[in-house]
TrEMBL record:
Compartments, as annotated in UniProt: Membrane
UniProt domain EamA: residue ranges: 3-120, 130-267
Major subcellular site: membrane
Topology of this chain in the membrane: Multi-pass membrane protein
One of the record's GO cellular component terms: membrane
Keyword tags: Membrane, Transmembrane, Transmembrane helix
InterPro entries xrefs: AA-Vitamin_Transporters, EamA_dom, EmrE-like
Transmembrane segments: 14-37, 49-69, 75-97, 104-123, 129-148, 160-179, 195-217, 224-244, 250-269
Species per Swiss-Prot/TrEMBL record: Sphingomonas crocodyli
Protein name: DMT family transporter
Any matching Pfam family: EamA
């Protein structure tokens, strides 16, 4: 799973470069929606939540992520910033749902934020600031979708993916046609490599990787599952350095480790809080 997720951002960087941000996102989501079409029927009373989840997870998340990949070159740095989705989800839960945060959770969020600041103010990374900020918006979209997903307990994973594909395509396809005219027509004539990476993104990262995560989360608490995914940004950083020659600096390593440490603290503190509530 770490390899699938870690390599996914590489796959998306290649497809965005071969096509364009909105077109690459629309193509990926349309394929996901078509594959998952047999599971399109929503459970009663869940249509609005499914539509909102799909719009955020598919549309807004990929919109910001693909724009970040378009304007930034250091894919590894983007992968590290993407880990902020977990602390952001916690903060949004406190602000929107009025959930209480304990001291350990606050400390974890603070450590993660400091890690991102250390990363951003690296002179070799600072030039990537627009892309990093777009990645923060993508992480915010992902964190927001996790709150919506709480209303979808028991909904089959493939149904979630169908609505993600449907609503994401509904947002990104018109943007592709209007803002990237003629790019969609290039899709059938793409070289093998971008098409292969697109297939990997759909089948490997989305259906297998995220599907596996959903399966694990359905059987184990978040705090037990999330640490298993922390190697994904390490894979991304190593693969980005190997494939694109992007630098790996001391500040990047320190900031990345601090961010990951913050995510671990937040996750473990949440597990402890849930145990205390159930006691």
């Amino acid at each position: 799973m770490n390899i699938l997720w870690g390599m996914n951002i590489i796959a998306m960087k290649v497809t965005v470069g071969a096509l364009a941000p909105f077109t690459a996102g629309a193509a990926r989501l349309a394929i996901v929606g078509l594959i998952c079409a047999p599971w399109m029927r929503p459970p009663p009373g869940r249509v609005r939540a499914l539509a909102l989840f799909g719009l955020i997870t598919g549309g807004l998340f990929l919109l910001f992520l693909n724009l970040a990949l378009k304007v930034a070159t250091n894919v590894g740095a983007l992968a590290i910033v993407g880990q902020m989705a977990v602390p952001i989800a916690l903060v949004l839960g406190a602000v929107i749902l009025k959930e209480r945060m304990n001291r350990a959770q606050l400390a974890g969020v603070a450590v993660a934020i400091v890690g991102i600041v250390v990363l951003m103010f690296d002179p070799r990374i600072f030039g990537e600031l627009p892309g990093l900020l777009l990645m923060l918006l993508a992480a915010t979209a992902w964190g927001t979708s996790s709150l919506v997903q709480r209303q979808l307990a028991g909904v089959p994973v493939m149904t979630l993916y169908f609505w993600t594909g449907l609503m994401g395509t509904a947002l990104l396809l018109p943007m592709s046609l209007v803002l990237e005219p003629g790019v969609l027509a290039k899709l059938p004539g793409l070289p093998f490599a971008p098409l292969a990476w697109l297939a990997f993104s759909v089948l490997g990262a989305t259906l297998a990787g995220q599907g596996g995560m959903a399966w694990l989360l359905g059987r184990h608490p978040l705090s037990a599952v999330m640490p298993l995914t922390l190697a994904a940004p390490v894979v991304s950083v190593a693969a980005s350095h190997w494939m694109f020659g992007t630098p790996v600096t001391a500040s990047m390593v320190i900031g990345g480790l601090m961010t990951l440490a913050g995510v671990v603290i937040v996750t473990m503190a949440r597990r402890r809080a849930l145990k205390e509530m159930g006691a």
